[in-house]
Amino acid sequence: MAPAPLPTAPISTPSTEAMNPRPALRVGLAGLGTVGAGVLRLLAANRAAIEQRAGRPIEIVAVSARDRSRERGVDVSGLRWYENAADLAEDNAVDVVAELIGGDQGTAPALVEAALMRGKPVVTANKALLARHGARLGKLAEAKGVAIAFEAAVAGGIPVIKALREGLGGNRFTRLSGILNGTCNFVLSQMRETGRAFEDVLAEAQALGYAEADPTLDIDGWDAAHKLAVLAAVAFGIPVDLDAVYVEGIRHISPLDIEYADDLGYRIKLLGTAVRTERGIEQRVHPTMVPATEPLALVEGVDNAVVIEGDAVNRLVLQGPGAGAGPTASAVIADLIDLAQGRRLPSFTEATESGLQAVSIAEHAGPCYVRLMVLDQPGVIADVAAELRNERVSMEAMIQRRNHPGSAVPVVLTTHPSQEAALRRALGRIGQLGTVLEPPRMIRIEP
Ligand SMILES: NC(=O)c1ccc[n+]([C@@H]2O[C@H](COP(=O)([O-])OP(=O)(O)OC[C@H]3O[C@@H](n4cnc5c(N)ncnc54)[C@H](OP(=O)(O)O)[C@@H]3O)[C@@H](O)[C@H]2O)c1
Q1: What's the average model confidence in pLDDT over 128-148?
Q2: Closest by CA position to 79, among listed 94, 96, 63, 93
């Protein structure tokens, strides 16, 4: 019997890939703050895995920030430095511009526009820019045949844009609702846990670095509104339009409201909600009473969460860190990986359902919580009930816990689903009754 041939070692020929390694995706990074430095750190920490997923290396080749001498905890010494961030767009050795400066005026929009004009894709975490100029910039990107990618602009580390476009791409979305601002969620969580007043908790949030020195953008609901406008555009295929979003912040939420919410089985959250109605798309950001057993009610502290409802998937909840260097860098790098792979990313303006109208808050219909401070004397409740009846607002329940004849007491009522405009008219007149001592407080209830 002839001896079996000796196994031969496979002749090793270098693969085409090894001979022609794919060239790196060269990134020009503008902004070296929390997010920009986070991107540099994460790219360095997970370089091999990121390269494998992207199919080629991702390299930061040039950077820009304001202060060249600032210590940032990352080494930028070998990188080209641009005093003027917009010059990154002109650098022929930059394939993609990452705009991590922030703001809807000045350098950030100038840089994004310059990059798109030069036919360079842009990655941005800048929700303010997208909410104000997204429709225009999206059109420009399409005209130039390049992407403007923005996973990091909404809900930080939660890959909600990808979820809507890719994982849930087969759905017709009916509703999106989310905790989109960690600062507000922290403040409301702390108020509930400690019974402390808004100003007190806000000061603590500022000391802990959870709130900016000027907290207006967060506390008054605008940051959440920027994100909601972007989310609604992606989910419903409508142009991003900040003016279509009703915005109300959390300054007026009192410990008393939080206490009553608890009694009624709710938690107060600042929600951004976009809903498909028969008349079009409602977009609104406001404090909301959420049933205490619902997933959004259970999200505490600085976390974000988004509930997505679609005809096929039914209901899905995504929760996670909405800000911070690591989570936001994670989202920026996901976009860079897509670009390195050569994936075509859709922009805002690719309307899938053109013709959907924006519906004003006046047309919103839903149940509501109302708190009045009234003089405890006979006839007050009857007067309030009459004003509600005149506007066809139907009361579901009324609570008056304390009785102190002749003094001020809170009266709380909840309504059956009512039209917002009608309830507001009724509350306007109730506020003028001599026995009602403060403007009525209303907080919408989400079913
Ligand atoms: N922080 C988060 O957790 C988070 C989460 C999601 C999205 N975002 C978004 O990410 C973006 C960046 O936020 P961030 O928190 O990283 O901000 P940041 O810490 O304030 O950093 C901003 C960076 O931009 C640089 N910069 C400012 N003006 C500039 C100019 N004219 N030219 C060049 N560079 C300029 C600053 O330079 P200097 O360092 O020299 O001052 C700084 O490095 C914003 O759009 C923000 O909304 C942030």
Answers
A1: 95
A2: 63
Contacts of 47 (CB under 8 A, 6+ apart): 57
| Ligand 1 centroid distance, CA of 275 (Å) | 32
Q: Is the CB of 126 under 6 A from ligand 1?
A: yes
Query: Could you tell me the two tokens for 270?
Result: 């600042």
Q: Does the global pTM surpass 0.90?
A: yes
Query: Residue 70 phi/psi, 5° resolution?
Result: -65, 135
DSSP state of 439: P
Q: How many angstroms separate the alpha carbon of residue 99 from the centre of ligand 1?
A: 9
Radius of gyration of the chain, Cα coordinates, nearest whole angstrom: 26
Atom of ligand 1 at shortest distance to CA of 106?
31
> Exactly one of 120, 127, 162, 227 is catalytic; which is it?
227
Share of the chain above pLDDT 70, in %: 93
Is the separation of the CB atoms in 405 and 377 below 8 Å? yes
**Closest C-alpha among 323, 367, 20 to residue 152:** 323
Q: 345-355 pLDDT, tens per residue?
A: 887 766 666 67
CB contact set of 402 (below 8 Å; sequence gap of 6+): 376, 409, 410
Residue 427, strand partner residues: none
